[in-house]
Fold each of these.
Amino acid sequence: MFSKSFTPLIDPFDRRVRDLRISITDRCNFRCTYCMPEEGLKWLERTDILSFEEIARLARIFVEGFDFDGIRLTGGEPTVRADLPVLVAKLSGLIVPSTNKPVDLAMTTNGSSLRLIAERLKTAGLNRLNISLDSLDPQIFQAMTRRNHLDKVLDGINAAIEAGFDPVKINIVMIRGMNDHEIVDFASFGRDKGVQPRFIEFMPLDADGAWSMDKVVPANEIVERINDVYPLEPVVHGPEPAQRFTYKDGMGEIGVIPSVTKPFCGNCDRVRLTAEGKFMTCLFAIDEFDLRKILRSGGSDQELIEQIETAVGTKWAGHNIGKVNFIRPPRSMSQIGG
Ligand code: SAM
Ligand code: SF4
């Protein structure tokens, strides 16, 4: 219906916005310390969560109406949502008007269910997978995720590789004193398995409120420690937040995401949709725009488009983590969608 007549979404700082993160559930089968509380988080009612049809309608508006070229499914844990391949099939057919190519559809998962569904996700049109894995040591894995599922996640990574996902990226949240002694182990793991580690700086989005600056392992330190063992060289790349490096011996690549020590806000092209249909222009945004209300009151595509444009008009220049004027958002990571 939008054919070629899309309108690029430009924010007040002249950044082109074209990447949508969709949280499809607030629920999760893990309780990672840096994300969720051990217990007591109040789940959304099932009827409050957007249906697949509602998600697909919004996704179509972003892709066909605003020429978005990337969508990432996240959560909570996206694989706890029943019939996930059905949603993937609905989204993977969306065509980006300016390129006439399918949207780049990705997902971030804790990997624990991939043995069961990786192949179906691939067949349904999922292009890329990031799998979270914070430790290769079963005890530390359990301490960080509050679950004893290291073997399942490792098997999930194998299932993703066998299903043909390439590259498989491994998300590692680095926390000082917890898993920072494993930096080089993760590099070796990535080289052996042909997967790409992406080391993420710990952000103040943990439900327990235990974040502090001294728990952040700076991306520079991570690169230096790997470079001492496996020499690296930087990759010149586009607006993505990861700083990428390849091994000089050609054995693959790593990424570091310096969200805290070197925020990439100046290049940010992302916006987010929460599981209950709130539209947010930053992980740290305080303002939320209710798209579900428009969807469920019989609103038109035009009304949705106008609300999205209004929201993007409020996108700020960047967050201020670590500075005195930083305001911690009311939602934790699993309630926004990382
Ligand atoms: N459940 C899925 C998973 O864990 O991959 C998807 C949702 S999770 C919120 C998305 C990503 O955010 C994961 O890679 C997770 O490690 C990361 N994350 C969660 N809390 C974080 C925090 N406080 N700081 C940095 N990254 C965080
Ligand atoms: Fe669940 Fe992912 Fe949050 Fe861990 S990081 S608690 S797996 S949503």
Note: The two ends are 31 Å apart (CA to CA).
Amino acid sequence: MKKTAIVTGSSRGIGFAIARQLGLDGCNVVMVATGPQQNNQAALDELKALGIVCAYVQADVGDHDGRLKIVDAALEAFGRVDILVNNAGVAPLVRADLLEMTEESFDRVVGINTKGTMFMTQAAANQMIRQEPLEGRKGVIVNVSSCSAVVSSVSRGEYCISKAGVSMLTTLYADRLAGEGILVHEVRPGVISTDMTSTVHPKYDKMIKEGAFPIARWGTPQDVANAVSALCSDKFLYTTGNYIDVDGGFHIQRL
Ligand code: NAP
């Protein structure tokens, strides 16, 4: 029997690379994004062309009903949930100094990144607990946080706070779910070339070239996908609550 992997925010960027990698690893994939399926048909077709069996769910992880819809859609399509990758996340719409940050922006970023991950994990974990183990395991949950969980950026404080929250909720769920046979891990990407970072691309290019950034190159979505794939793999012998830093050029593992 194949495992089913839900990957939130998987229509493009890091999430798409994770969905493709888990599909190539042999999972059925549930692609999730806020846009309608027709907007993301090319991404779905790319997975299908690789022989990956996938379903699409239009849902907002920041919304209670959206989160339940995702689990329901996975069950309807494939009957179970073995892997959840909480990847969907947003940056602030405007980078504003900490002293100018608006409450609206704080609520939006924390609502999607932190609250979305918190309660998406809760919904999936309760389903994993209800189902029979597959290959000796009830499930694996991987949360995509960020180096911003521990590195301060005063022009996007709400993002840093939201990702620090993801780190703590990962530890909390790791502790709570270990006894249920569910592994919970975290991946902390550094700077990865995607739509999210397109506005700072020229600035970071210059900093990398001048050696002002402690990285050798931009990370790629596939770098993050490789880390997630390793954490979801049966070859991964560690227990729960690990995190992997994915930085361009340096893949520092702290396990
Ligand atoms: P991206 O290119 O902006 O893609 C974001 C994806 O999430 C899209 O598929 C988007 O699709 C979906 N999405 C956005 N809001 C959503 C919501 N409320 N509910 C469901 N899906 C939603 O971002 P990315 O760079 O790939 O980032 C992916 C994750 O990695 C994020 O959590 C981000 O914080 C984290 N990260 C990124 C970097 C980086 O350098 N890029 C570094 C560290 C961490 P729709 O727009 O159609 O909804």
Note: DSSP finds seven helices and eight strands in the chain.
Amino acid sequence: MSDLFLAAGAPSLQCCDRCGASWPELSTAAECADCGGLLLVTHARPVATGDALKIALASSAEASGVWRHRALVMPGADQVVSWPEGNTPLVDRARVSEYAGVAQLQLKHEGMNPTGSFKDRGMTVAVTHAVRAGARAVACASTGNTAASLAAYAAQAGIPALVFVPKGNISAGKLAQAMAYGATTLMVNGDFDACLALARSASAELGVYLANSLNPWRLEGQKTIVWELLAQLDWNTPDWIALPAGALGNTSAFGKALREALALGLINRLPRLLVVQAEGAAPFARAFDADFAKRVTVRAETVATAIRIGDPASWDRAVRAIRETNGVVTSVTDAEILDAKAVIDASGVGCEPASAASVAGVRSMVARGLIAASEQVVCVLTGHVLKDPDAVNSYHADGATRANPPLEIEPRLSDVERILGRR
Ligand code: F0G
């Protein structure tokens, strides 16, 4: 096993991905104090690897799908702030695989987490870290899901949460959650990128704990999405794992999860990552097309507000994830996102707009001959259908191809009969 791990029994470290400097486990700096690079957590080599590790994970009595992997996530934690989260379903829906154009497509529904998105996996670990480090307050910038998740976990931990959200570009469900769970909600006259700049200075100047996906502990929790879906496939590697991307935290977490799974003998080959952005918010896809020669930023605009991000923070870590997995980054239009979402929704599964980018991305790759119909694909659905009711209502009111608007009737049986006849 490689230098991915420290000597057995050593406390975890936070290591700079740029200059290699390392910092103690309970340091709360969001970046490397030497060079400003982003950090990645390194743990001690686990006692069990390969089949022994698979058995240990499968037989864990832990209720949380994140903390089941504690030795590989945060071995030093005894008390954790957990909902519990994770253990999300991996489902097949024939309509969705036919739509995407591949015979084997599975949906890993992260919207089935306690606050309705994958963010809970990272947040349980980050808030546990904040508590262990003695943080007075926690903060994040967010397009909505991170805010909802942080609000819920901070409430559980009993520490104040401050969330910065872009005014006019956060869905109703997410804003409602942040308020309901008791976070101080700051509506910023600016986009997500402006919110993040503000949250970073609040963290640096005012000492609040930053819980954005820059935070390396968030990635430790989000790694478990990948390990859990691999375990659900009996550790048989699919050809592709597709996910939507905005700030690129999840892409980075998936790359680290796969790197570690290979080093630990959990899998013997890597899947390829398919990272999908919305066309109006696709700096990473543009850079991929130019072989990542330079970092790109854009003014972001898309109906998928969760991924309306023009300057993704986890850039370098995500480039590494793409390179190591022979991955592909692509983009899809808002129309493609909404069409894929309507198919996922009508299959009875449902998801928020950003999540549907994963399926839309696979469909587009199949149409272009870049994914073969015989390949096995797992699409990660990152958020729940109820996160963004306005997107659903406006789609169905709009006369779109797959629109299913409510039909107004008088309270009489003949109206019902007339409509049944029509169907
Ligand atoms: N899908 C959903 C539903 C999201 O909420 C996000 C990010 C992503 C995908 C993209 O993940 O940023 O790690 O590349 N939402 C963040 C938030 C930005 O504030 O909730 P990423």
Note: The mean pLDDT is 97.
